[in-house]
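Quick one - inputs below.
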Amino acid sequence: MPETKFEPWNDPNEKPLIEFRGVTKRFGTFTAIDNQSFDIYTKEFFALLGPSGCGKTTMMRMLAGFEAPTEGKILLGGKDIAPIPPNKREVNMMFQSYALFPHLSVWDNIAFGLKRDGKDKKAIAARVAEMLKLTRLEKFANRKPHQISGGQRQRVALARSLAKAPKLLLLDEPLGALDAKLRQDTQFELMDIQETTGTTFVIVTHDQEEAMTVASRVAVMDDGRVVQVDTPDRIYEDPNSTYVADFIGDVTILSGSVTPKDKGYELRFAEGQPTLYADSDLSLTDGQTGYLAIRPEKVAVSPEKPEDRRNALKGKILDIAYLGNLSTYHVELPTGQVVKAQTANTRRLANRPFSWEDEVWLSWSDSAAVLLER
Amino acid sequence: MIRLSWFNVTSLTLGFAFLYLPMLLLIIYSFNESQLVTVWAGFSTKWYGELLTNESYLDAAWVTLRVALVSSTIATILGTMAALVLIRAGRFIGRTLFSGMIYAPLVMPEVITGLSLLLLFIGIGLDRGVVTIILAHTTFSMCFVSVVVSSRLMTFDKSLEEAALDLGCSPFQAFRLVTLPIIAPSVISGWLLAFTLSLDDLVIASFAAGPSATTLPIKVWSSIRLGVSPEINALSTILIGIVAVGVISASLISKRTMLRQMAEEQAAERA
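Output:
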């Protein structure tokens, strides 16, 4: 059913909700955002992902109105938002620290924005009740923020920012303060709420797993630039650079000169080692340097050389990371380079075939590795 | 209960004696029958009665109270505004000069502050009285309020204000509905500090006071020069009583609030 699939970014008739047009932000001599342009569509769950200091929070603060672009424009529904102060924008934000008002009850925190709009009491009460129900906080309406747990505070912050039904909701590291288990539950809860309310969400996070779980599209940022904007699966399977490949998930990167062959290229990564092949649409010249990114779970480990695959390397097991359901093998090639391979532990521990110092063969299919230009 | 060693007991006794023995003597002598302060002649409360009928003391007390109330309120408003500018406005031209000038009265000798105010009042032809004392007290107590409030603002989570703006507040509404209620305890303690400073100030008040208005400290000081009267002892005992009740109840209230908050936070984390 391709017509029900949510992909507004592939539809040329769809108008984006937010457009960044050549946005640059400088703080003194420091450039936080460097001439960036990209779009966010209505009802998207858009993630800005990057290490701390990459400019993702600045991006969000410009949307909220706490910072103004030095150059360029940000359009919301086709209109430049630069002259609109934060209190007049149809954008709400959920703060990293939650920023709950400590002197107000949960109920009053959620009602705060509605009261500023001068709505009548009945309408406010109805909307607050709706928000309390949505975030399962009915029991805590009369408590003060210090009287509830961290997870509940997070939900109050979410309810408060959703209460005014903004066109756009910004979430700044919303789950950073929660422990791992609660984090996972809350991620799914966030997705449910996003779907129920139909609000456009923009989330800022440094946690790649979180971005991959919740987002419809992920923008990977580095040093003030958006490196790649794509769906989570394409970010993972089709990274456009070694930076993205390395930032998202685990990867082994081998570099060397490439030679065109068949539907892709052959890569010579070290003297005395077999060449590696990867299918690729890139147009590289003979002898140019290419980077081969191989995900560990796509690498098979076997005691004998597999006959049916062109990509096969011999090495010695250096380390085994046992994760319960999976095991990651760090295999050292004779050149000293380490290639990671991951296998699912379908059998019990006693039957596992490999141990430290074992000589093994690593292999992968023609389409398993991604060839990158940079 | 920790058992105290003889050393602890001795140092504790000496410490308390050093701090409170003079006051204890004063309180005891306020109940002295005799006209002579240093000769004990039996228990009596007559000096308290005389004090209440002494118009000049009552007038002075009333002036002191009015001056303290008005000047501490003005100082609190101005001092809080100054603190907000210092902490919030970021770097502006003349910021260092501004902060230096706000804090200067903290270290300025009171005599100089008083003298310069006196010159100013004479210069502009302002008759010395209640108004000039209020102005003078506002001037020197404002910086104390600024110090108290700005130290609170430094630890104030700025995202709370941003959240208020984000939810539709104008900057002034954000201050009134969010910042002010949260920093209220420090504003109140700033006010109390200004109030007590004004109550017991002698030096600056004596420069700014005129024949039409005298504050209690000036009154006490000038009557001491004519000899210590038991009336003064009675007056001082009343003041000590007021201060003691204030300090003890304030610390009890704040301790109880703190304990309750801690208990509630623990309960919330367990839930």
